[in-house]
C-alpha cells in the first residue's frame, strides 16, 4: 500500500540486459528449430487425425464422395451389429487367454532362468527370437505348418496315431490357435522383461528373509513378487493393449474367418474402412476400441499408484 | 530346496555349522543320487526346442524340393540343399523390389529418427524456450494414442499430400516417433552438464556442442533407438497394407502375404521368401543381442 510508485524510467528488474536477452531469444529460436520437425510430424500425424477421426465417426463417409453428418447413428448401429458384437467377444477371449498365459509363463521361465543354470543365455535367446519375427512372417510360416492337408503338424499327429486337426480352418479352434501362435512369439518378451526386473531384487532382502527361516516359496511370495510388482503391472498393461490391438496375424492367417471366428475389433475396423468403404462406421468402432484402451490404461495406472505406495511401505 | 546355499558366499553358507564344533572328523555330506545337470534342464530343454522348431522348420523347408514338401507326410529333413525356391523368389520380378522398398523405408526411418530425435530430445533436455513443457507433455500424450484411432484420417492426410501408393506414405509417418525424442531426452538429462557448458561458453554453437560432445557420448541410447526403429518399420504390415495399392510399391511383409496366395502350390518359394524376410532382423538380433535386449527392456522399465 505504502510502496513508492516505480519510476517509469527504471528498467524492469527481471529483464536481462540487452545482450543476454538477445542471446536468450536466439537460444529460443534455435530450440524451436531443433524441435519443429519432430513436433510437425508427431503432432500433425496424431492430434489432427484423432480429432478428424472423432468427426468422421459422426458422419457417413465412403472416403470418396462428400460425407454426411449422421450424429450418433454409427454408434447406435454398432450397438446392434452382431458382427461387431462377435468381434468384441473374439477380442476379449483372445485377450483373456493371451495376457495371463504369456505373463504367467514368462514369470515362471524367468524365475527358472534367473537361477544359476548352465546355458541360460542360450535358452533366453531361443525363447526370445520368435519375438523379432514379424507377424506377417509368423502368419505365413504357421499357415504352412498348420495346413490341414499337408502341413507338418498334422503329419506329426498322424505319426502319433492321432486324428488330423483343422487348426486355423476350424471355427472352434482358429482363435485358440492364434493365441498359441501369439504365445510362441510373445512369451519371450515377458521373460526378458522379468529377467531384467529380477536383477533388481535386492539380494540382502532375500538373505535376510532366508535367515529368518523363510522357505523359498515364502521368499518368492513376500519378497520377490512384491518387488517386481511394478513390472508385472507394466506387462499387464502392455500385453493387454497389444492383445486388444491384434491385427497383422489375423490378416495373414485367417482374414477373420472361418465364419467370423477370428474377426477381432481392429480387423473389423479395417474391413469397414478399407474394404466396405464405410469409413465413418469404422472410425466409430475404432473410437470404441480407443476408449476401451484408455480405460485399461487409466485403471492400471490407479492400481500401479496404489501398489507403489504399498511397496514403499514394505521396503522402508 | 529351501536354502540358498548353492550360491557361493551367501549368508547361509557362512553361518551353517560344519561339524567342527563337536571335535569329530568332518562328516562328508551324505551322497545321494544326483543328475549330472540341473533338473531344470528337463523342463527348459524341451520347451526351448519347441520354441525353436518352427524357425528350424522354416529354414529346412526353404531348401527342400517341392516333391519333398508336397508329399504326405512331408519329409522331415531335406535330401539335399535345393535352391529352387530361392531361385524362383529372386528371379521373380517383384520380390527384389519389395526387398529394396523395405530397405529404403527402414533405412530412412532409422537415420531420420536418430537425427530428428537427437535434435528434439536435446532441445527438450537442455534448452529453454517458451511452451516447452506443454509441448513435451503433449508429445508424451501422443504415445498413448492407438494406431487404429488415427489410421483412417492418416490415410486421408496422405491422400491430400498425394502420397498414397508411394513409399512417401510409409516414410512420412515414420520420420520421427515420440519414443525416439523421449528416450534421447532422458539420456541427455543423465549426462553431466559441465561437459557441454565449457564448450558452449567458449563460443561453440549449440549444434556443434550437440554433434561433437553429446552425440559421441550417447551411443547406447542412439543404438537403442536405431534397433527399435528398424525392428518396427521392417516388420510393419498394417500401415503398408492401408497405404499401398500396386504390388510394385509393396514392402517385403506385405508382398509376402500376397505371394502366398499367388503361389500356393510352391511352398518352397514361399518359405524361401519368408527366410529372406526374417533374416535381416534375425541377423541384426544375433549380432547385437545385448543392445537388442537392453532396448526392449528399456522400453518397459524406464518408460
TrEMBL record, chain A:
<keyword id="KW-1003">Cell membrane</keyword>
<dbReference type="Pfam" id="PF00528">
    <property type="entry name" value="BPD_transp_1"/>
</dbReference>
<dbReference type="InterPro" id="IPR051393">
    <property type="entry name" value="ABC_transporter_permease"/>
</dbReference>
<feature type="transmembrane region" description="Helical">
    <location>
        <begin position="219"/>
        <end position="241"/>
    </location>
</feature>
<feature type="domain" description="ABC transmembrane type-1">
    <location>
        <begin position="88"/>
        <end position="302"/>
    </location>
</feature>
<feature type="region of interest" description="Disordered">
    <location>
        <begin position="1"/>
        <end position="23"/>
    </location>
</feature>
<comment type="similarity">
    <text>Belongs to the binding-protein-dependent transport system permease family.</text>
</comment>
<feature type="transmembrane region" description="Helical">
    <location>
        <begin position="125"/>
        <end position="146"/>
    </location>
</feature>
<dbReference type="InterPro" id="IPR035906">
    <property type="entry name" value="MetI-like_sf"/>
</dbReference>
<keyword id="KW-0813">Transport</keyword>
<feature type="transmembrane region" description="Helical">
    <location>
        <begin position="279"/>
        <end position="300"/>
    </location>
</feature>
<feature type="transmembrane region" description="Helical">
    <location>
        <begin position="31"/>
        <end position="55"/>
    </location>
</feature>
<feature type="transmembrane region" description="Helical">
    <location>
        <begin position="92"/>
        <end position="113"/>
    </location>
</feature>
<feature type="transmembrane region" description="Helical">
    <location>
        <begin position="174"/>
        <end position="198"/>
    </location>
</feature>
<dbReference type="InterPro" id="IPR000515">
    <property type="entry name" value="MetI-like"/>
</dbReference>
<protein>
    <submittedName>
        <fullName>Sugar ABC transporter permease</fullName>
    </submittedName>
</protein>
<keyword id="KW-0812">Transmembrane</keyword>
<keyword id="KW-0472">Membrane</keyword>
<keyword id="KW-1133">Transmembrane helix</keyword>
TrEMBL record, chain B:
<feature type="region of interest" description="Disordered">
    <location>
        <begin position="1"/>
        <end position="24"/>
    </location>
</feature>
<feature type="transmembrane region" description="Helical">
    <location>
        <begin position="40"/>
        <end position="60"/>
    </location>
</feature>
<feature type="transmembrane region" description="Helical">
    <location>
        <begin position="134"/>
        <end position="155"/>
    </location>
</feature>
<dbReference type="Pfam" id="PF00528">
    <property type="entry name" value="BPD_transp_1"/>
</dbReference>
<dbReference type="InterPro" id="IPR000515">
    <property type="entry name" value="MetI-like"/>
</dbReference>
<dbReference type="InterPro" id="IPR035906">
    <property type="entry name" value="MetI-like_sf"/>
</dbReference>
<comment type="similarity">
    <text>Belongs to the binding-protein-dependent transport system permease family.</text>
</comment>
<feature type="transmembrane region" description="Helical">
    <location>
        <begin position="98"/>
        <end position="122"/>
    </location>
</feature>
<feature type="transmembrane region" description="Helical">
    <location>
        <begin position="267"/>
        <end position="288"/>
    </location>
</feature>
<keyword id="KW-1133">Transmembrane helix</keyword>
<feature type="domain" description="ABC transmembrane type-1">
    <location>
        <begin position="99"/>
        <end position="288"/>
    </location>
</feature>
<keyword id="KW-0813">Transport</keyword>
<feature type="transmembrane region" description="Helical">
    <location>
        <begin position="209"/>
        <end position="231"/>
    </location>
</feature>
<protein>
    <submittedName>
        <fullName>Carbohydrate ABC transporter permease</fullName>
    </submittedName>
</protein>
<keyword id="KW-0472">Membrane</keyword>
<keyword id="KW-1003">Cell membrane</keyword>
<feature type="transmembrane region" description="Helical">
    <location>
        <begin position="167"/>
        <end position="188"/>
    </location>
</feature>
<keyword id="KW-0812">Transmembrane</keyword>
